[in-house]
Automatic annotation (TrEMBL):
DNA-binding region coordinates: 26-45
InterPro entries: Homeodomain-like_sf, HTH-type_TetR-like_transc_reg, HTH_TetR, MT1864/Rv1816-like_C, Tet_transcr_reg_TetR-rel_C_sf
Keyword annotations: DNA-binding, Transcription, Transcription regulation
GO molecular function: DNA-binding transcription factor activity; transcription cis-regulatory region binding
Segments forming domain HTH tetR-type: 3-63
Keyword DNA-binding: yes
Protein name: TetR/AcrR family transcriptional regulator
Species: Amycolatopsis alkalitolerans
The keyword Iron appears for this protein: no
Short name of any one Pfam family annotated for the protein: TetR_C_33
Length: 176
C-alpha cells in the first residue's frame, strides 16, 4: 500500500470507481477503502470534486499514454480514434467520470486531450487528408462522433459487436 496518504486515497478511489462505478465513490467509502479515518480525505483534498478530479486525471494520463504507430499520420490518427473507444470499453466508469463536469473540474485536461487530437488531425491534413478543412472543426466533429459511440455503448444503446462495426463505419466515413 502506498505510504503517501494523498496517493493512497487516489488509488483507493480509482479501485472503488472501477469496481462499483461513479456513484459509489464517496469520501467516506474512499476513506474506508484506503484504511484511513473518514475525515482524512478532507485533510488532503478540498472536497469530493478535487479528489474525483485527481482520479479523472489518472484516466486522462492513461488515455494520453496510448501507444500510436511511429509512421504515417493517418495511421496515428486512426489508432488514436480506436484507442479512445477501446479505453471507454476497458474503463467504463473512469471514462464516465472523466467527462462528468458536474462532478469534476478537468477543463485543462479536456483541452489537452483536444489539443493532442487536433495535432493528430493537423498532421493527417499535412499528409493530404481533408487539407482544406478547419482542423479544429474537423477534430471536434471526429471527437464528437467517437465520444457519442462510446457513450451509446456505455448506456446500452450499442452491443459490443455493433460498436465495433459502427466504429469501423464512422472511421471509414471520416478517414477514407
Amino acid at each position: 500500500m502506498d505510504s503517501d496518504p494523498r496517493r493512497r486515497l487516489i488509488s483507493s478511489a480509482v479501485a472503488l470507481l472501477a469496481d462499483e462505478g461513479v456513484e459509489a465513490v464517496t469520501l467516506r467509502r474512499i476513506a474506508r477503502a484506503a484504511g484511513v479515518s473518514h475525515g482524512a480525505p478532507l485533510r488532503h483534498f478540498t472536497g469530493r470534486a478535487e479528489l474525483l478530479s485527481a482520479v479523472a486525471s489518472e484516466g486522462f494520463a492513461e488515455l494520453a499514454e496510448a501507444e500510436l504507430p511511429s509512421r504515417g499520420a493517418r495511421a496515428r490518427l486512426l489508432a488514436a480514434c480506436r484507442s479512445y473507444v477501446e479505453f471507454a470499453q476497458r474503463n467504463p466508469a473512469m471514462f464516465e467520470l472523466m467527462f462528468r463536469h458536474d462532478l469534476i473540474d478537468t477543463a485543462e485536461l479536456d483541452q489537452a486531450v483536444f489539443a493532442r487530437f487536433t495535432k493528430l488531425v493537423t498532421d493527417a491534413q499535412a499528409a493530404g487528408w481533408r487539407a482544406g478543412t478547419d482542423p479544429r472543426a474537423l477534430a471536434a466533429s471526429l471527437w464528437a462522433a467517437l465520444h457519442g459511440l462510446a457513450e451509446l455503448w456505455l448506456w446500452g444503446g450499442l452491443a459490443d459487436r455493433d460498436l465495433l462495426m459502427t466504429l469501423d463505419l464512422t472511421l471509414s466515413a471520416y478517414l477514407d
